[in-house]
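README, section 4: Worked example with a bound small molecule

Sections 1 through 3 covered apo chains. Here we extend the same pipeline to holo records, where the ligand is supplied as SMILES alongside the sequence. The molecule in this example is adenosine-5'-diphosphate. Nothing else about the input changes; the structure line simply encodes the ligand pose together with the chain.
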Amino acid sequence: MLARFTENLKSKVENFGAVLRFGFQALRLVATEGVPPRLLTEQLFECGVKAIPTTLVSGFFVGAIMAIQIELQLRNFGAEGAVGGVATSVTIRNVGPVLIGFILVGKVGALTTAVLGTMRVTDQIDALTCLGVDPIRMLVAPRLIAAIISCFLLLTIGLIVSVGGGSALAWLNFGTNPWHYISQIPKFVSLESLLTGGFKSLAFGTLLGSVACYQGYWATGGAAGVGKMVRKAAINSLVGIIVADFFISWIISHFLRGIGH
Amino acid sequence: MIEFVNVTKRFEAQAVLEKMSLTIEKGEIVFLIGRSGVGKSVSLKCLVGLLKLDAGEIRFDGRSTAELDEKEWMGLRRRCSLIFQNPALIDSMTIYDNLALGIRAMGLAASRSNERGLIEREIAQVGLDLSLLKRYPLELSHSTQKRVSVARALVVGSEALLFDEPTTGLDPINTARINQLIEGLGRAGRTIWVVSHDMHCALAVADRILLLEGAHIAADLTPKTIRSSNHPLIRQFLEEADARPLH
Ligand SMILES: Nc1ncnc2c1ncn2[C@@H]1O[C@H](COP(=O)(O)OP(=O)(O)O)[C@@H](O)[C@H]1O
Ligand SMILES: [Mg+2]
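The generated complex, written as structure tokens:
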């Protein structure tokens, strides 16, 4: 039982190592040779633009939810005036990047794994190699870069909408003046929160892009195998994002304590 | 032109090829037959470098493939094209763009009109209509896609063509067409290596017929000598071929 658990854990860690190597291999290729612009534009459209509506809706409601929850907490301390600042800060540092990551796992991760997996099991990827085309450059690099850029841009869009959602709720529910709500934001949202959020979104984009591409790129076992890989990629990305969120938060909090915040 | 010297390829514990040796001369048409799962596709993939050998050596034109760098591999893959069992056309690209992939990656056309000329010539060579060039692979029948995949190999000017089960899954009419195409390409001087379990076709087209069994070449025959072979598998393949009506 324990042996099976450790065996399982070991294979998970190895798989994660392989995913990271694969992601870095693709990023190194981008650094040396760039990405074909037309392919990148195509993927940015697939990955980023198509996820905007979902981001708008989720962002708005997340802002509203955060406002409700945080107002309840702050009221006990008589600090409900700070709700806009606290809600936005938490959204930027944590909820936002994770949520955008999850949206992209569902919206593009699954599609990416399925497309690359199908290309693998029908020999399209090997055919590219035989024609002198580097499949990593043509298929993986544009998808990975698009995932990273999209994660960052969608976080920005989602945040703006969440401020809208939060202030609208606070106004309708608690009668808080929206301008007051917004004016609280700079008091709580430091440069460090912005950097944390931005860094997390880039990290999660890299993670979910690498996982989705890797699992598809190395799919085996025909259509059924591709199906399994799609599921595996989704689960690995979701768990990976949460674990990475913990480690990044932990490291940053230690770092900040270290420099005397 | 193609030489396998004691080639060994394993997948984990399973030895798919074990000290397999064979030689294919320039201009020959050679059929490699064998039961499914014995390693026929694996041997083709080893030749073009999609799989790495565990031991032994493959020589192409006298040069060991172990010495090749990335650029030289591209050169080999240009001179020696693998036509997969799946048509393996890129779904998201038109037929034209599929055919242009290799030309562009290998820098074979001086201009766009030069490129179009190459593509139109080979599409006609495989007996397809130029109007197909604007279509997408999944709009075409399987047998048409297969012929496009042959054209995609011809377009880069390969001297050697490797066919992985070119007629498996095709109806008799399209099987006959593909066989004629292969024979025509062979008679025109190209080196042809076909992996197949279609003994009918082998008897009609091949200069030589090799049997892959037990991880190595178990028989090396010609259509003339094959009838006198007493290898049980060869006999079985022959009986099966004789039982089917000619098409
Ligand atoms: N990439 C691979 N990984 C693991 N095993 C493989 C791989 N490719 C082929 N094999 C195994 O090698 C054996 C030979 O496969 P293959 O060459 O495709 O057979 P065939 O003679 O039908 O073309 C099979 O048992 C197959 O399962
Ligand atoms: Mg095969």
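What to look for in the output: Residues 16 and 39 of chain B are 6 Å apart (CA to CA). Strands of chain B lie at 2-11, 14-24, 29-33, 55-60, 63-64, 80-83, 160-164, 191-196, 208-213, 216-221.

Section 5 describes how to batch many such records.
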